[in-house]
Write a structure and sequence with these properties.
This protein is of the alpha+beta class. It is 34% helix and 10% strand. The protein has 2 domains: 3-113, Homing Intron 3 (I-Ppo) Encoded Endonuclease, Chain A, CATH 3.90.75; 117-158. A 3-stranded antiparallel β-sheet has the order 1-2-3. A two-stranded antiparallel ribbon has the order 4-5. Bound molecules: zinc ion.
């Protein structure tokens, strides 16, 4: 799918947001549905997602906040996905709710599927991931062994990271 086709699809689906409230004085009104909105006043996390303070003393992903502010609440277990395939985009026109399966499908569609060694912070091979999932070692021990953070090892184990099918 070409970029033009994707943008045309977004424009057709997008609801006008001219009456939407502004966030932080940085208004979304006037954000074109045809273009990704990747504000440089928001920090990026290691995955390329925008980081924003969530008003509760923590940070949230910018696109999830944008969805909550401009579209509505996010039901439990649902993910806020990008029609445009651009992780750092928080244009509410480009965001929609989906599940993990749709997320994986979208990544394939947009050619942004990142697996294995193409993940910038991932040095794990597919067999490493299998070994971690099969291991009885603690996350701390595995983190040391693989030079990864403990939380990353935990996410590998629980499938939150490297959820692509292992082996095969
Ligand atoms: Zn976008």
């Amino acid at each position: 799918m070409t970029k033009v086709t994707t943008l045309a699809r977004i424009a057709a689906l997008a609801k006008p947001l001219s009456t939407a409230p502004s966030a932080d004085g940085k208004s979304f009104s006037g954000v074109s549905p045809d273009e990704c909105f990747t504000p440089d006043w928001l920090a990026r996390d290691q995955w390329g997602y925008c980081k924003a303070t969530n008003g509760k003393g923590g940070t949230s992903r910018g696109h999830r906040l944008a969805y909550r502010i401009f579209v509505g609440s996010i039901p439990n277990g649902m993910m806020v996905l990008h029609r445009c395939g651009n992780e750092s985009c928080i244009n509410p026109h480009h965001l929609y709710l989906g599940d993990a399966w749709q997320n994986a499908r979208d990544r394939e569609l947009h050619g942004t599927a990142k697996t294995g060694k193409s993940l910038p912070q991932t040095k794990l091979t597919t067999s490493d991931v299998s070994a971690i999932r099969d291991s009885n070692e603690s996350c701390i021990a595995l983190a040391k062994q693989y030079g990864m953070s403990r939380s990353y090892i935990w996410r590998v184990r629980t499938g939150a990271a490297r959820s692509n099918k292992v082996g095969g």
